[in-house]
Amino acid sequence: MSTADDLDLSSLADDELVEQMHDDLYDGLADEVAEGVNILLSRGWSPNGVLNKALVDGMSIVGVDFRDGILFVPEVLMSAKAMKAGMAILRPLLAETGVARIGKVLIGTVKGDIHDIGKNLVAMMLEGGGFEVVDIGINVSADDFMKALDEHRPDILGMSALLTTTMPYMKVVIDTLKQKGRRDDYIVLVGGAPLNEAFAESVGADAYCRDAAVAVETAKAMISARRQHAVPAG
Ligand code: B1M
What we know:
By secondary structure, this protein is of the alpha/beta class. Helices cover 56% and strands 10% of the residues. The chain has a five-stranded parallel β-sheet with strand order 2-1-3-4-5, with helices on both faces. Helix 4 (73-96) packs parallel to helix 5 and helix 5 crosses helix 9. The longest helix is centred in the middle third of the chain and has 24 residues, at 73-96. The N and C termini lie far apart (66 Å). The site of CO-5-methoxybenzimidazolylcobamide has 37 residues, from helix 3, helix 4, helix 5, strand 3 and strand 4.
């Protein structure tokens, strides 16, 4: 499953190209994935369509084979790199749709966890949805979350975890906020493949976001609800 050297991606019909991009993602071919993204965009595909059909669907195939022991860490890292190459092209386009900033989101992957593809996607989609986003990266400790919250003063704190062993750390961050009497200063949204609503509730988050699109909807709904309930000054 690899792009033959002489294969001209632009000669493929859309559905064949998307399939080829899934193969190229699987094989970690960053240049080919980037080229495919550019071709689809030049054919009038929306950035969102390219993201979901070509990249996210392709990465799901990688996820299944990683789970089943067919792919291993180095190969998945190559796929992740290829996905990032595609996302780098889409990022400014997704952000472009935003008009006035709706609010500010600070987002990071919790301590012990280095998965960042989903978080980056969420950050991109939030930017596209009109939010200012401060991404503080991976392996973020409660202390570092607190420092960043002080520095950036967002409306929303977003946390990501992809491992069953790291998701409980979200509670550590939320409990730290509570101890400092600052829990109510922020809307706290959490996400990541192993989470669910019950977990989000159990750690004291405001909502669980199944995917990036839900994260944008939830962020918008919660900001607007909070603003409606804010007591007018004076
Ligand atoms: Co990892 N890994 N991994 N991995 N990895 C998983 C998560 C795993 C499920 C694979 C498997 O076994 N099937 C498994 C976890 C099992 C478990 O916890 N029970 C696993 C494991 C075990 C590990 C290691 C321990 C492997 C090892 O070393 N033996 C290791 C851990 C390293 C660490 O973090 N300390 C490890 C390492 C890696 C790589 C480095 C190779 C690479 C990460 C590269 C990177 O991120 N830069 C990697 C990858 C790529 C995966 C899989 C294959 C794909 C994850 C991904 O990017 N998905 C993953 C299998 C899987 O999930 N199917 C797996 C695509 C992404 C778009 O989806 O991240 O779910 P996702 O994000 C979604 C939603 O969840 C949601 O929106 C996103 C977009 O729609 N969302 C949020 C996510 N965060 C959000 C935050 C929000 C809102 C929504 O805030 C508001």
